[in-house]
Design a protein that fits this description.
heterodimer, A: alpha+beta, 5-stranded antiparallel β-sheet, B: 3-stranded antiparallel β-sheet, two-stranded antiparallel sheet
Chain lengths: 283, 57
Amino acid sequence: MARISVFVDVQREEERLLIDAARRLGHELEVINVMHSVNWIDSRPPGEELGVSFVRCISQSRALAVASYLHYSGVPTVNNPEVLWKAGDKLITLTLLSKRGIRVPETAVAYSRTDAIRAAERLGYPVVIKPIHGSWGRYVMKAHDPDSLDDILDLKETVANPTFKIHLIQRYIEKPGRDIRAFYLWGEVPVAIYRVSESWKTNTARGARAVPAKLDNEVVEVAVKAGDFIGGGVLGIDLMEDREGEVYVSEVNGIIEFRNTVRVTNYDLPAEMIERSIKELRR
Amino acid sequence: MVKLICPLCSSTVEIPDDALDGELFEHDACGAQVEVYVEEGKKKLRLAEGISEDWGE
């Protein structure tokens, strides 16, 4: 038995599954709603009673804040803030992975509208425009021609969030009606799903269907390397296959959503998350 | 009351019979703000837009 803490803001099905698993495994559990608590930054440590802490805030900003407070106070945290920071920023993720030899979609970073249009011309239409921070596929847009790109950039440049003026322009990869979500747990990929959709966006949050996936060893190896390069822990690695069968890592997720994976695979992912994290962090 | 499935936590939410398309509710059990919408004559729920752009993975 171990002591574990789960930090939440709102509770999704994932948090319920994680809490149920912790109870079933007989761990001593504390659930902390960060919306009703205060972390004091002073010399007193947050307390050994927290044990291994799982940061499960739905808000990426709150998750990074909570993970930073805990980790730099000496609390073993899943995931640690550096991992959340790297995974939460597509520019950092893609740059880190590309420099380590992982195939990622050809991507340009442009800081002005003019250069974004030039980059798109060089990549060739259609192109995908992404924010550097984003979730559930929001603000990910496809431009089929210069006119539609112009409209998209118009919209992005008028959004108050200044990071929207940093443009990630990607070559569009024609997927075979699905992508891959590989779940990385401390150096292994024990389970994966295909996310099947007629839409070019294959997020399950946007209605893609989860189907159990048996991945080739080569794909597993890519996912493991990607997880290792981001810093390890518990991650969701998103991979795309193109029509020629080449595999690309499109992004890495630091706070995974897994309800559909548990439902279609019967793999006890929340229990494995807990047990493997305790084993790693109590060493 | 109409019983619907919360899109966030998947448990049941009770919504008044006269709930309007686009009406917002807070789901007490999980804290989600949900929006009623009507598809093919049936009431359904989705997460309310604009809660925060940094929600989710």
